[in-house]
Amino acid sequence: MSALLIAGLALSSLAQPAEANSRIKDIANFEGVRDNILVGYGLVVGLNGTGDDLRKSVFTRESLVGMLERLGVNARDNSLEVDNIAAVMVTAVLPPYSRQGTRIDVNISTIGDASNLQGGTLLVTPMIAADGEVYAVAQGPVAVSGFSAQGAAASVTRGVPTAGRIANGAIVEREVAFQMAQMESVNISLRNPDFTTARRIAQAVNAFIGQPIAQPVDPGTVRMAVPSNYTNNAVGLITDIEQLRVSPDSIAKVVIDEKSGVIVMGENVRINTVAIAQGNLTIRVTETPQVSQPNPFSQGGQTAVVPRTQIEIDDSADRRLSVMSSGVTLQDLVSGLNALGVGPRDMISILQAIKAAGALQADIEVI
User: Fold this and answer.
1) How many CB atoms are located within 10 Å of the residue 205 CB?
2) What local confidence, expressed as pLDDT, does residue 137 receive?
3) Which domains are delineated in the chain?
């Protein structure tokens, strides 16, 4: 990613209003409205010779034997060798307030040495939550987007053939009990905790209801009492409240991904007066050996390789010291760094140096 692209992203963000209003439902969660993670272990059968090697994947062999014994088949034989079955982990997300009989999607991933799940079918797999209880049961044909093919001298793989998905592949068998109608208070949890944002949410709720029913408990929670006109109707209260708009606040932060060279800076980033100079010393060595041959019919000449070396040095002498005044905005900062011809990698070092000098009024987070 070039410095010009980063500058473009910054300028496009500055083009938006400084006070961008967001709905409460987009910046906060309501108590009880949450997902639950499910996981299960199962077997996929019907593979075309791309399953686990039972001699290497002991868990697949034992699972197969156990399943067959439950079906009344004695399969405890040392010569049991099949290559069309694979042990898999099954994962899913149980949406909030899912009722018995509803269906959810599941993801399938191999844990053995199976090479492809194409054409496989997942057998009945219980899906458990963190409390160890079964909340859903999954089964069905596995849809795989990736594939692999190989011949005697070449092979090709596209996507990930060892992972798949079953749309509506699990049936919910147990509900997560939580009743909202009788609630006397509701907690609003901010996704990005902030004192100012929590206070603004409470003020917006109180202004809408017309009485002080909401107050911030901490930077991440706003507690809201159910008013008398919403008694036994907490759902209606949440429906009205979640559409209110507030201006979320955030701290000044610079996020840096050193692996990819990506830099993201918030609009509140400010710097004090600072002078910046940047230059790289680049040395390029080019070897162009030449062959020297003796004259025709010479008696003592020999063919020899003569080295030819060319050295180029670029010390970036044309770059000058740039001064940035106190309180410059994000646009000024990016424009000044771009004027120096700074690339993303060098910009990371410069921002860290400005922070070390105490001139950058923002937090730097390296991911």
Assistant:
1) 23
2) 97
3) 21-32+179-246 (3.30.1360), 36-172 (no CATH), 254-292+305-366 (no CATH)
